[in-house]
C-alpha cells in the first residue's frame, strides 16, 4: 500500500511538472486561456451539430419552414407586409422632404431679420404676443409705479386687469 501511495505522489509531481511545462510552451507561443476556451466551445458546438438529435431536428424544421413558406397564407402576409413597408417608406420620405423644404425656406432668414420685418410685426400672432407681454409687464411693473408706499399691490386689489382672450 505504501509503495502504491509513493507512486501516486511521484505521478502527481510529474503531472505538475508537465502542466507547468505546458503552460510555459503556451505562453511562448502566445496562446491565451481565451484561445483554449474558444477552441473548447468550437469543438463542443461541432459535436452538437453532428449529433443525431440535432440533425433530425434540423431536418424537421427545414421541412416545416418549406411548408410554411409555400403556403398561401404566408405568401399573402408577406405581400401585404411588403406593400405596407413600401407605403410607409414613401410616406416617411415625403414627410422628410416637406420638413427639409420648410427648414430650407426658414434658413434663408435669420431670426433677428424675421422679427424686424413689418409683415411679421403686423401679424395677429405677434400682436397677441405683444399684448400679453405688455399685460404681464403692467401687472408687475405698473403696480410698482402706481403705488404710493412703494409696495406691490395684489392683483385684483383696486383696479381690475384688462381681460385679453385673444389666442396666443
From TrEMBL:
Region annotation Disordered: where it falls in the sequence: 137-168
Keyword set, alphabetical order: Coiled coil
Protein name, per record: Tumor protein D54
PANTHER family in the record: TUMOR PROTEIN D52, TUMOR PROTEIN D54
InterPro entries hit by this protein: TPD52 (IPR007327)
Family named by the database record: Belongs to the TPD52 family.
Species for this entry: Tinamus guttatus (White-throated tinamou)
Keyword Cell division attached: no
Gene Ontology CC: one annotated term: cytoplasm
Domain of life: Eukaryota
Amino acid at each position: 500500500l505504501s509503495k502504491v501511495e509513493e507512486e501516486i505522489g511521484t505521478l502527481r509531481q510529474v503531472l505538475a511538472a508537465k502542466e507547468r511545462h505546458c503552460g510555459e510552451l503556451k505562453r511562448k507561443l502566445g496562446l491565451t486561456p481565451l484561445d483554449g476556451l474558444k477552441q473548447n466551445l468550437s469543438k463542443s458546438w461541432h459535436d452538437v451539430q453532428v449529433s443525431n438529435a440535432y440533425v433530425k431536428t434540423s431536418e424537421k424544421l427545414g421541412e416545416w419552414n418549406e411548408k410554411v413558406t409555400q403556403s398561401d397564407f404566408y405568401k399573402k402576409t408577406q405581400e401585404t407586409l411588403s406593400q405596407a413597408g413600401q407605403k410607409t417608406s414613401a410616406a416617411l420620405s415625403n414627410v422628410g422632404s416637406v420638413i427639409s423644404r420648410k427648414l430650407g425656406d426658414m434658413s434663408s432668414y435669420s431670426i433677428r431679420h424675421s422679427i424686424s420685418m413689418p409683415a411679421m410685426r403686423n401679424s395677429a400672432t405677434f400682436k397677441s404676443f405683444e399684448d400679453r407681454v405688455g399685460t404681464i409687464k403692467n401687472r408687475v411693473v405698473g403696480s410698482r409705479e402706481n403705488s404710493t408706499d412703494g409696495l406691490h399691490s395684489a392683483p385684483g386689489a383696486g383696479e381690475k386687469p384688462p381681460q385679453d382672450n385673444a389666442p396666443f
